[in-house]
Design brief:
Strand content: 5-15%
CATH topology: Potassium Channel Kv1.1, Chain A
Number of domains: 1
Number of helices: 4
Protein name: BTB domain-containing protein
CATH superfamily: Potassium Channel Kv1.1, Chain A
Radius of gyration: 12 Å
CATH architecture: 2-Layer Sandwich
Number of strands: 3
Pfam families: BTB (PF00651)
Strand order of the largest sheet: 2-1-3
């Protein structure tokens, strides 16, 4: 459903100004910081302008079941993003 952009209810803006869409329930399961948005019915827009499209996309792919292949630089930035979003599994390895 995410690939077809169906029923997306959270959109994350990246440092390039690009937007990554996802399902809030999926992201909230892996990134506790998003749980505060679960009680509403609105579409959520989040600014993560410190992080690139590659890093945000990797985080979303992780939440949906795994990351195929990322560069070492993206992996380091993903670690920083995971720390910001309170994902202990990614932070602790």
């Amino acid at each position: 459903m995410r690939v077809r952009r169906e029923r997306l209810d959270i959109f994350i803006n990246t440092e390039e100004g690009e937007e990554v869409g996802a399902h809030l329930i999926v992201l909230a399961a892996f990134f506790p910081v998003f749980r505060k948005h679960l009680s509403g019915n609105d579409i959520v827009h989040v600014q993560l302008s410190r992080f690139s499209l590659d890093v945000v996309t990797a985080a979303v792919e992780y939440a949906y079941g795994g990351i195929d292949n990322i560069s070492p630089e993206t992996a380091i930035r993903l670690y920083l993003l995971a720390h910001s979003l309170h994902n202990n599994c990614l932070v602790d390895g």
